[in-house]
Amino acid sequence: MLISVCMCTYKRLHVVETLKSIDQQQLPEGINLEVVVVDNDESAFARDLVLNQAKKMVVPVVYAQETAKNIAKARNKTIANASGEWLAFIDDDEVADAQWIKHLLATAEAYQADVVFGRVISLYPENTPQWVIKSGAFERPTRPDGSVVTSGGTNSTLVNKAFLDHNALKFDEAYGLTGGEDADLFHRMHELGAKLVTSNNATVSEEVAQDRLNSSYILKKCFRVGETYTRYRLLDQASSKKIRYMAENSLKGLVFLVWMLLLLPMGKNSYFKPLLGFVDKAGKLKALFSKRVVELY
Q1: Nearby residues of 29 by Cβ (< 8 Å), 6 or more positions away
Q2: Which of 210, 244, 270 is the last residue of a domain?
Q3: How many H helices and E strands in the chain?
Q4: Please, are residues 5 and 79 in contact by the beta-carbon 8 Å criterion?
Q5: Quick one: 148 and 227 in the same domain?
């Protein structure tokens, strides 16, 4: 069986390290890999990096370019160039554990799942401020193996390609400059009856980039995540459901605001986490009333 490892890249030297980790996978008998890399840069920044590394690898590499600045288009091109029965998504700033594919596949088989979300372990540079770490801004929640979920991301994920093909599914290009295209796609899969589960053993690591260790980036992304959640889950729902949603998130936002204000005198190490909670709720509420969205790409 062939598994296609799908990766988009944009002006990152680290793509070479990601490729190396894929080439070092300890695979079960009868499992083969290919890597599909789509360079979402009109100047083809990664072409030589990828092709030079490909010459040193056992796993074959397919390189393609998507010149349009749109992460959803780039992800769709990885799928279009993939030949595998399963798609394994990873980001170009991550390193896969040697048994990453093995654990993803084992979880899919054990729970008869269409999608498996592995775990992303955030690593921090030595100079990372404590408030960043304590806020948990870059931490992903962990759940027991086989936990059923309704959405997720593409940073450590195995997907049954047959389910996508059968339902003519692809990433929505309307999310191309904001992100959230992955959460949207996986939620649509869930709505169509796909089984989405988690795996704690299928891990990748990611060192948080220096240019993300600041309030501006963290708050902007948090707000966008809130917006995206509303966009793919609520905008097509009945008015009564939207009103309940608005009331619930308004109340939760107020609680986070009071919590933040109480902790304000204790400094950023204390108040930044409830601030993120407030910003998330604000993003969710804003998306109910405005089509303008925060762009991250």
Answers
A1: none
A2: 210
A3: 10, 9
A4: no
A5: no
Tell me the pLDDT tens digit for each residue of 229-246.
999 999 888 999 999 999
Q: Which of 131, 112, 101 is nearest to 1 (CA)?
A: 101
Report how far residue 3's alpha carbon sits from residue 105's, in angstroms, rounded to the nearest whole number: 10
Backbone angles phi, psi at 194, to 5 degrees: -70, 150
pTM above 0.85, yes or no: yes
Q: What angle do CA 3, 139, 36 make, to 5 degrees?
A: 20
Which of 92-106, 127-141, 243-257 bottoms out in mean pLDDT, i.e. has the lowest?
Answer: 127-141
Looking up tokens 């097509």 gives 236
24 alpha carbon, distance to own chain's centre = 22
Q: Are 165 and 75 in the same domain?
A: yes
Three-state SS annotation for 90-157 = ECCCEEECCCHHHHHHHHHHHHCCCEEEEEEEEECCCCCCHHHHHHCCCCCCCCCCCCEECCCCCCEE
Instruction: Provide the domain count of the chain.
Output: 2
Taking the C-alpha atoms of residue 180 and residue 173, their distance in angstroms, rounded to an integer, is 10
Pair 261, 233: CB distance under 8 Å: no
